Amino acid sequence: MQTRPQNPNQSLLTELANQARQYAMLMRLDKPIGIWLLLWPTLWGLWIAGEGHPDPHIFLVFVSGVIVMRSAGCVINDFADRNIDNQVIRTKDRPLASGTVAPAEAIVLFIALGLIAIALVLTLDPLTQALAIVAALLTILYPFMKRLIAAPQLILGAAFGWSIPMAFAAQSGEIPRLAWLIWLTVVIWAVIYDTIYAMVDREDDLKLGIKSTAILFGGADVFIITLLQIIMMLAFWLIGAAAHLGIWYFSATLIAGLFFIYQYLLIRQRQPDDCFRAFLNNHYVGATIFIGILLDYTFRVTA
User: What is the pTM of this model?
Assistant: First the structure.
């Protein structure tokens, strides 16, 4: 029985599709939790800065920017960790760690994503463009801070919250104190969920010399996370008061508090699988707060 000769064009398309899939995995598009954790506070900022009516162009630029910058952050993170990820069970199959994507390819992809981000931000005002430079620096710095400082989660939080002052600058041309309050709240939130995330890999990180707040906090990790969650709840209420939000928003904060209680129940035994579930649950915290903001502005009664 004769075998049908393989179509070289089909073989090439298959190879290109497989490589594109590896690039998508490198950008972590198959695991969108990072996009959500970056998107929700961005939407908080856009809606509050725009008093419930963000500019459509600014909205599209920021949502696109979230996807692009999170993807770029994943690429540079995996580039920095390429010789470490292959020693950790959870990350050994990542494209750079497994060798399915070469380091040079990752750099080219990172540059391409950076150019897209630049094209997006050039459609905005000069103040927002200046702030975007800081966002880019934070994105590049974070992966390398895990080797230098005991609490790299602070840099992650600063990066994930930087869309807040950018949103206010783009919408109103200024950065009020309210914007910095929301930014600080996002920094606290990032320390909370990334500490929970780091609890999953704590043993591996100790062996490899990777620093994290999970290691820094040690046996006090659950207590400190709970304390930060309480502080974050207070920050939510301060934001609501400063932004003159109402019952819809404050009801949402109470629901977010219930999610924090659920996370405490998951992490108290420090089991890696349960800690990872608690980390993922923060997606619902962010979504709940945004829904509260959205409903509050939608159903606001004006005199």
Answer: 0.91
